[in-house]
Amino acid sequence: MIQSLLIANRGEIACRVIRTARRLGIRTVAVYSDADANALHVRSADEAVHIGPSPVRESYLVGEKIIAAAKTTDAEAIHPGYGFLSENAEFAQAVQDAGLIWVGPNPASITAMGLKDAAKKLMNDAGVPTTPGYLGDDQSPERLKAEADRIGYPVLIKAVAGGGGKGMRKVDDAADFADALLSCQREAISSFGNDVVLLEKWVTNPRHIEVQVFGDSHGNVVHLFERDCSLQRRHQKVIEEAPAPGMDEATRAAVCQAAVNAAKAVDYVGAGTIEFIADGSEGLRADRIWFMEMNTRLQVEHPVTEEITGQDLVEWQLRVASGEPIPLKQEDLSINGWAMETRLYAEDPAKGFLPSIGMLDTFELGGDLPGLRIDTGVEQGAEISPFYDPMIAKVIAHGPTRDAARGRLAEALNDSAVWPLKTNAGFLVKALTHPDFAAARLDTGLIAREGDALMPPTRPSDAALADAAIALSRGGGLAGFRLNAPVKSSAAFLLDSEAVSIVYDPRESGDAPQADILVAESGQVWRLAPFRAVGGTGGAASDGAILSPMPGRIIAVSVSAGESVTKGQKLLTLEAMKMEHSLVAPFDGVIAELNASEGGQVSEGALLAKINLVEGG
């Protein structure tokens, strides 16, 4: 068994590999960039080596630095994780040439499966069914157009070196083919340095089915059953599950055997995934499931396979890389229950899923639900950097049935609280509870079709706000949803940067209002802070203090001292977390005090302005 291991990656997958290595008694070495100096994976490893500046091209993608770090720390092996250099055949070869163990497939296997056109030809020769299409050497626009006409529209143009949804164009009509081809080729050359394309028949009601395979250096290859990754947004997987809904035993046997044949065709060693596209218009049928590509690495979604098989795939990787045979034979593997995984990202669905960058002041996921697993590379107090993928956790649920796993996963996300960064948790809850997904009516276009129906709420419910107002007056904490008493009092609050009026039962109130409180509902989180208090009889006015809801920079001052303002009027604009927040007047009044200037930095809770209530307001 390997005794020392360098992980050539960061974040969640680095932490994942370290956990298994520690259990096996293997010493671990982390690598890190400037941005990751205090990252969880760095502190979790036995040793860590700095490899350069924050940009990946100056650190995590520099193979020479990683190999040098392994040599310096006397590491025996390198585990690439996923992404970065994990499918780089030249790096794999360099690792082996340096006398180190590469925890992955042979470089020749990576090369064989690295280009989609060559891989499809190889699969055709091996008898693995492939999608009808064209992958010839003649790349002239005229030949490609003629082949598209022959295949029939709609047709899909795919860059042979593509991935992650880049270099792909669907063409619905022959008249649009030329422009789509040029666009696809431009994107492919920019992203991958290769503008060669292939054509595939566009599949109606497409399902994304993939099979986990594993090979060893003794000639053994097994599968660990299938996963369904059909729920996608812009060709990126959103929710993955295992097994695939609607997969009968005969179809499972056929597609899994095809995956094993594909792996054997390239003498595969280690963990890999054979990806298929299925025409789900008449359910899953063996004659309508075709090879797409092979990922020659561990997949992001491997935990769902681990959960239904009870196997640790990272342990398998390390044992196979050490020269051991695969731990189990095919007949020893079976499916137990159902598992689902969601990818929790620091991104804002309300702003087109733009990354949300900054500090994780609050990071609470899932609680103590049975069958729940959280794989993450961050913790409360960590910083989400603009240099890397904004995935902050994978949330995985296992249960006896699909509905049980789905319900646990939705509950875990519903109860999560991440602040001040925005996340896609609310969007994921909507997807998990959507009637079509709940009924396993799946295809890769579901999210695109549903659009706004999957967008999370932009503000809490009235019940949650009322409950929050009570909790705020009691001294803070995360607010729930329970409110049974009648509501008779009101107060003005700042909900994130918007003024809101909340009614609640004053009999539930306690001490003086605290600075702020977080309101968590449906996977979304908002901050609630008091603007002013109004007595139970609705008479006395407060001091109208306008406080900064978070640290930031004032980028606009829209009023001046002594100026009359009306309720809802913008007073100041605060830039924080790379977003603009408008602070508005909670009631009609006069600016009695102004402590903010354009360009000034302010701290959380700072008094920015004070409004005196207009007489009779």
Task: Please state the CA-atom Rg, rounded to the nearest Å.
Answer: 28 Å
> Tally of extended strands?
36
* Helical coverage, percent range: 25-40%
Label the structural class: alpha+beta
Low-confidence stretches: 476-487, 509-513, 532-542
Query: Count of DSSP helices?
Result: 16
What is the topology, as strand order, of the major beta sheet?
A: 14-13-10-11-12-15-22-20
Please characterize this protein's 3D structure.
There is one protein chain. Helix 4 packs antiparallel against helix 5 (107-114) and helix 12 (402-414) runs antiparallel to helix 13. It is globular, with a radius of gyration of 28 Å. It is of the alpha+beta class and 617 residues long. It is built from 16 helices and 36 strands. Mean pLDDT is 89; it is low at 476-487, 509-513 and 532-542. It has an 8-stranded antiparallel β-sheet, with helices on both faces. Strands 3-2-1-4-5 form a 5-stranded parallel β-sheet. It has 6 domains: 4-103, Rossmann fold, CATH 3.40.50.20; 133-201, ATP-grasp fold, A domain (Dna Ligase, domain 1, 2-Layer Sandwich); 205-336, ATP-grasp fold, B domain (D-amino Acid Aminotransferase, Chain A, domain 1); 337-450, D-amino Acid Aminotransferase, Chain A, domain 1 (2-Layer Sandwich), CATH 3.30.470.20; 459-529, no CATH class; 543-617, RNA polymerase II/Efflux pump adaptor protein, barrel-sandwich hybrid domain (OB fold (Dihydrolipoamide Acetyltransferase, E2P), Beta Barrel). 48% of the residues are buried.
